[in-house]
Specification:
With 139 residues, the chain is mostly helical. The N and C termini lie far apart (41 Å). It is 65% helix and 0% strand. The longest helix is centred in the middle third of the chain and has 40 residues.
């Protein structure tokens, strides 16, 4: 195969894979905890510290709160400040593409052929589509 044609096929495959990844990542469903996470993140940005008590809980007594999702919540708050709901979706898509990029580079470094790399990415992302549909700290 001629080099020019090979480059065109490579570019077409990579473009197809990127568009297919976007089609998997962009659809977003509502998550009941999202706005709580955004609120906690906004509170931490305002306080400029990790909040150690839950000011919104009416069931537990005041005390030390270990918020293991604080970094995700601050990230959500920054994304929300930058772009509202669309900013949260864009953040989710960026995290998904970054994850796909790490996997792609790792496969490439291990000598996996381009077609197989693209197929692995698409199968993997399609397989976890429902887990990555909401904006959640577990992203």
């Amino acid at each position: 195969m001629r080099p020019h044609r090979t480059h065109l096929l490579t570019a077409a495959l990579l473009l197809f894979t990127f568009v297919a990844l976007l089609a998997i990542l962009v659809p977003t469903i509502a998550d009941p905890d999202l706005w709580g996470h955004v609120r906690y993140g906004l509170d931490m940005l305002e306080a400029r510290t990790i909040i150690r008590t839950d000011p919104y809980s009416y069931l537990s007594e005041p005390g030390t709160w270990i918020n293991h999702e604080w970094l995700a919540e601050v990230s959500f708050a920054l994304a929300y400040r930058a772009g509202g709901s669309q900013g949260l979706v864009l953040f989710k898509v960026a995290m998904g593409l970054a994850t796909a990029g790490v996997i792609y580079v790792t496969l490439r470094q291990r000598g996996v052929r381009l077609l197989v790399r693209c197929a692995v990415l698409l199968l993997m992302m399609a397989g976890i589509r429902f887990a990555i549909s909401p904006v959640r700290p577990q992203l």
